[in-house]
Amino acid sequence: MTSLWPTVYSSHMSETDNAVSSWNSSFGKRLLDIVGSSIVLALVSPLMLLVAAAVKLGSPGPVLFRQERVGQGGAEFEMLKFRTMYHRPSDSGPGLTRTGDDRVMPVGKFLRKWKIDELPQFLNVLRGQMSLIGPRPDLPDFYAKLNPERRQILCLKPGITGWATLHFRDEESVLAAVGHDEMLDFYVSDLLPRKLDLDLSYARGATLKSDIGILLQTFAAILPTGAKPPKGNHPA
């Protein structure tokens, strides 16, 4: 499918590319992505087989959830996740999920709590569609409602985790506090811009050391003890 996003994005590309750290588009970052994702996939492949079986037994439907997201330069790609919702093609519902969503099956709640449903995205990293560290990829409809300045986030490759992800790792609980009819508007006009501002701020000073710091904080956050959300400046 041909996307119009590169055309929309291109007029703001040069200005933002100059504003962010050269690390974001470096060979070193790509090497970190390849090595890191390869190690993770090798270590968790037995777990992924178990998860695939659990999803298949949990409800009829595909094991993987595939959805078009906007990537670097505005190019759309197919993001992968383990399916956590009941397979209802005729009733897809909103493009956001919040705590208590009845579309999520029991095994899906467990997978989402521990972020296990995100593991297939390491394949997206190997393909070069995503990075280990970057802004979370979102739906085209959401980006279309942003102003041009915030749409500059598209100069960055989307990531599995990032500075905004650490701050909003309980995003589903935040959305649950908003009325159902107000959820989409709240996300696009309030929550998403705050996330993008955090990720753009991080990208301006991103380095190998800071990316490794994000990875360590992410790992700590999903442990049973659950590290508190970061405060102040991003890892230097």
Please tell me about this protein's structure.
The protein is mainly α and 236 residues long. The chain has one domain. 47% of the residues lie in helices and 8% in strands. The protein has ten helices and four strands, in the order αααββααβαβαααα. The strands form two sheets. A two-stranded antiparallel sheet has the order 1-2. Strands 3-4 form a two-stranded parallel sheet. Helix 6 (140-144) links the parallel strand 3 (131-133) and strand 4 (159-161). Helix 3 (27-58) runs antiparallel to helix 4 (106-113). The longest helix has 32 residues, at 27-58. It starts with a helix and ends in a 15-residue tail after the last helix.
Topology:
Blueprint: H1 5-10, H2 13-19, H3 27-58, E1 64-70, E2 76-82, H4 106-113, H5 121-126, E3 131-133, H6 140-144, E4 159-161, H7 163-167, H8 171-176, H9 183-204, H10 208-221
Parallel strand pairs: 3-4
Antiparallel strand pairs: 1-2
Helix pairs in contact: 3-4
Descriptive labels:
single chain; 236 residues; two-stranded parallel ribbon; 10 helices; mainly alpha; 4 strands; two-stranded antiparallel ribbon
Helix and strand pattern: HHHEEHHEHEHHHH
The helix tally amounts to: 10
Number of domains: 1
Q: Low-confidence runs (pLDDT<50, min 5 residues)?
A: none
**Helicity level:** 40-55%
Shape: globular
What strand order characterises the main sheet?
A: 1-2
Q: Cα distance, first to last residue?
A: 39 Å
